[in-house]
Amino acid sequence: MTLILALDTATAAITAGLVRRAPDGSVQPLAERITMGAKGHAEALTPNIGVACADAGVAVGDLGAIVVGCGPGPFTGLRVGMATAAAMGLALDIPVYPVCTLDAIGHGTAGRVLVVTDARRREVYWAGYSDGVRVSGPAVDAPADVSLDGYTQVAGSPDHTTLFDLPAVDHHYPSPSRLVQVAGWDEPPGALTPLYLRRPDAKEPRR
User: Fold this and answer.
1) 1 Cβ contact list (under 8 Å, min separation 6)
2) Are residues 6 and 91 in the same domain?
3) CATH number of the CATH domain containing 134
4) Omega of the bond leading into 188 within 30 degrees of 0 (cis)
5) Total domains, the chain
6) Are 60 and 52 in contact (CB under 8 A)?
7) For the segment 39-82, what is each residue's pLDDT rounded down to a tens digit?
8) Residue 138 CB neighbours (<10 A)
9) Count of other CB atoms within 10 angstroms of residue 194
10) Which residues form the Gcp-like domain (predicted)?
11) What's the CA gap between 118 and 190, in Å, rounded?
12) Which residues contact 85 (CB under 8 A, 6 or more apart)?
């Protein structure tokens, strides 16, 4: 079984977890460390990795692969996880698999489900799923501009699922196991391209 480090910093759940994956695709979660906060991703992620490894009784050198959520998410938080994954993959000479964070939230849901997360500026990142498979999005819009046509449930950030008149599914954030499950293991890992969907909030000062 391959030992995998799963990371995600695209949401308020700053996530690091250790998962073993068998050749048949089954996964065994070993340990996870999640810190909640819209800020402080850089300060929290590395300690979370250390705690998760300690709890699982493994060393970083034992890793066989890394999976990282590539968003969509706010610029500052998202790049922390992706930069960390890229640096660790290079240092350990192991593959790094990018996945859509919304896919990891939507994975395992049944029926037509809308997944939403915080995009700030009174907007949400969203994607639509049918039995856990993405059928629309990802995109960023004001909640009132997201069509609910055909959706029967909503998943994602609890602060934002309440903005939609749909029953909520208990898939709030991307778990390490679901991050691993949605990675494309049958192909070489793709490029680590962040899904910002819009320009960064921070702007260079005018000169």
Assistant:
1) 20, 21, 22, 23, 28
2) yes
3) 3.30.420
4) no
5) 2
6) no
7) 778 889 999 999 999 999 999 999 999 999 999 998 889 999 99
8) 19
9) 19
10) 38-151
11) 25
12) 7, 66, 68, 96, 192
Can you give the pLDDT at residue 38? 67
Whether residue 49 lies inside any domain: the answer is yes
Could you tell me the sign of the dihedral formed by the alpha carbons of 200, 77, 195, 87, in that order? positive
Segment 98-112, tens digit of pLDDT: 999 999 999 999 999
Expressed as residue numbers, the domain containing 124 is 102-162
Query: Cα(147)–Cα(138) distance, rounded to whole angstroms?
Result: 13
**Does 83 lie in the same domain as 20?**
yes
- Residue 199 binned pLDDT confidence (cut-offs 50, 70, 90): low
Mean pLDDT along residues 201-205: 46
pLDDT given at position 95:
97
Which segments of the chain are extended strands (E)?
2-8, 13-21, 27-36, 65-69, 96-99, 112-120, 123-130, 133-141, 153-156
Q: Are 1 and 28 in contact (CB under 8 A)?
A: yes
Name every residue whose Cβ is closer than 8 Å to that of residue 186 and which is 6 or more positions away in sequence: none
| Same domain for 91 and 122 | no
pLDDT above 70: percentage of residues in the chain? 95
- Domain CATH for 70: 3.30.420.40
Q: What is the pTM assigned to this prediction?
A: 0.92
- pLDDT for 116 beyond 80: yes
